[in-house]
Amino acid sequence: MRLYGLARRLIGRAEEALPQHKRIIAFLDAPECPVSGHVADVFRARATQAIGLDCAALGRWREAVDHHRSARVQSHRIGLAARKLLDALPAG
Asked: Which of 13, 22, 41, 52 lies at a CB distance of 3.0 to 4.6 Å from 67, suitable for a disulfide?
């Protein structure tokens, strides 16, 4: 689903990408979610970053900044280097 959302954003359809990335967070937060622990934390951090990129593509700058900050905090908490998040950003 994350790749689908990314593809939507990259072809200029960020308004379609945003709900896809939010669905990932909702799935991970659901009580019956089969994904847990570190794996869920990594997916949650990446999805939060993707939501920030979607918001930026839509010109919703405050939300974009908030999501990027949240993704960075999550990444540090679970041991992912912040540089990895920055490297994942598309060029340009």
From this structure: 52
pLDDT band (50, 70, 90) for residue 92: very low
Residue of 7, 56, 29 lying closest to 69 (CA atoms): 56
Residue 44 tokens, joined? 């949650």
pTM, 2 dp: 0.81
The DSSP result for 22-76, as a single string, is HHHHHHHHSTT-S--HHHHHHHHHHHHHHHHHHHHHTT-HHHHHHHHHHHHHHHH
- The conformation of residue 3, written as its DSSP 8-state character, comes to H
Summarised one tens digit per residue, pLDDT across range 5-46 is 788 888 888 899 999 999 999 999 999 999 999 999 999 999
Which of 47, 46, 27 has its CA nearest to residue 36?
27
